[in-house]
Specification:
The chain is mainly beta. It is about 10% helix and about 35% strand. It has 2 domains: about 140 residues, Immunoglobulins (Immunoglobulin-like), CATH 2.60.40.10; about 220 residues, no CATH class.
Length: about 375
């Protein structure tokens, strides 16, 4: 048996592929044969189990999948991942996250006919003592956290299409429909109504959609979860100011409006010109915030400034407008101002209670059908 380790740099993220594989026996075609294949670890805390049906045999496969456990012989007392019936040879996989740090796990692929179960070889892997766990929203989108001072932020724009309770956020593509919005219309869209752009840059939400409210009377004091996953909330204006002061602004600058500071915006922007238009002034991403130029949708329904600018909602309101932050390709400063509640703007979530994202205690295991990395 042989261990293999690869490290790949993917869009600014270290992607570690750790695989464990063994030799395969050639089986007669009329006998069901199955192997447990490479285990892949994408960054930290996301693991993909793989298996292969080498030959089908004479009986129908009623169930296939994986057993896995913290002890050997996972098929006896492990967690069962069911992938259903199967009638062909080939590979299959399942992805899990939220598993324990500093723990050895044992994995075994299986296929079951009406008469007998068949198993691949048992494979083991050990997680690091400290893991950075991703955030997974209700749509199974994956985000990574970053500690900035005493705060923990998502390092990606939100792209969810449902609220945490499962209710659907209205998607509006038509420009004239967007133009006719009332002050408290909930809606989201992808830039240019193109989902592939949204997969990278996130969704654009009206402020009522981001807040998950229908009217002024729905606004409550304190942190507002809104569209954010459980344990996270929409940042208030004061929380944006806390971030800015940690990055170097004075209190007087943070309390100001329009363009403020010196290089704080550059510390938040993803470095280089792969996404941002040249020159992407002052971009270092020193904070790990990884701001991308997602543009926005204005109140008339037109899309603006993909590649050159980005705006982020806050949960704080002034009159019929809400406070936003803006970053531009030709500035290293940060803009603070207000925009109409019916505009489509990006959302970044901040962790409740400003707690650290380093995980050392047990967490539940969740099975994903697919993984998308930024």
């Amino acid at each position: 048996m042989m261990d293999r380790v690869k490290v790949i740099i993917q869009t600014g993220i270290v992607v570690i592929l750790f695989s464990v594989s063994g030799c395969r026996k050639i089986e007669p075609e009329n006998i069901l044969a199955i192997t447990t294949d490479d285990i892949e670890i994408f960054s930290e805390g996301i693991y993909t189990f793989k298996g292969t049906i080498v030959s089908i045999g004479k009986e129908e496969i009623n169930e296939h999948g994986f057993y896995w456990s913290e002890s050997v012989n996972p098929e006896i007392d492990g967690i069962l991942i069911r992938l259903g019936p199967r009638n062909s040879t080939g590979s299959f996989s399942s992805t899990v996250y939220d598993i324990l740090p500093g723990t050895t796990y044992y994995v075994r692929a299986f296929a079951r006919t009406s008469s007998i179960p068949y198993y691949g070889d048992e494979i083991s892997f050990t997680t690091p003592d400290t893991l950075i766990f991703p955030i997974v929203d209700i749509d199974q989108n994956i985000y990574y956290p970053v500690n900035i001072g005493d705060q923990t932020w998502m390092a990606d724009n939100l792209k969810v299409t449902r609220y945490p309770d499962g209710s659907i956020i209205p998607q509006v593509e038509d420009r004239l429909t967007w133009f006719s919005f009332s002050l408290y219309t909930r809606a989201y869209c992808w830039y240019d109504n193109y989902g592939a752009i949204g997969a990278t840059y996130g969704g654009l939400y009206t402020w009522p959609a981001a807040m998950n409210i229908y009217s002024e009377s729905d606004i409550k004091p304190g942190s507002v979860q809104g569209v954010c996953p459980d344990g996270w909330h929409l940042p208030g204006d004061s929380e944006w100011q806390q971030l800015e002061m940690f990055l170097g602004m004075s209190l007087a600058e943070a309390d100001g409006e329009e363009w403020r500071g010196e290089d704080e915006g550059g510390k938040m922007k993803h470095e280089g010109i792969q996404w941002w238009t040249n020159p992407n002034t002052g971009s270092t991403n020193e904070s790990g915030f990884r701001a991308l130029p997602s543009g926005w949708r204005d109140g008339a329904g037109y899309f603006r400034n993909l590649g050159t600018s980005t705006r982020f909602w806050s949960s704080s309101k002034r009159g019929d407008y809400a406070w936003v932050r803006q970053l531009d390709y030709n500035s290293s400063r940060i803009y603070r101002g207000t925009n109409g509640l019916y505009e489509g703007i990006s959302v970044r979530c901040i962790k409740d209670n400003n707690s650290s994202f380093k995980q050392t205690s047990p967490r539940r295991v969740t099975i994903l059908t697919s993984v998308r990395l930024p």
